[in-house]
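Data availability (excerpt). The following record was deposited with the supplementary files.
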Amino acid sequence: MSEHETLMGRDERPGSPYPLWTERLMLLLAAMVVIIYGNAVQTAAGGGWLGGIVAYVLFPLFLLALIETAGRWIQARLTTD
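Predicted structure:
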């Protein structure tokens, strides 16, 4: 088994390191967006308990999914074959 061979028998070479600081920065920005705009999202969703769920559960999950997608897109752009 060579140094770069995986358990499945694929020969993979290590790529360039992925800059994790970009994803961490985006996560910090998303937390700030939730803190700043959470109340506005709750009001726009109609207020009450449903608005709270939208503002403080669904909105952060949406931002997290958006950050994950952006991180994977950046990683795909930076990796070379």
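Summary of structural features: Helices lie at 20-44, 48-78.
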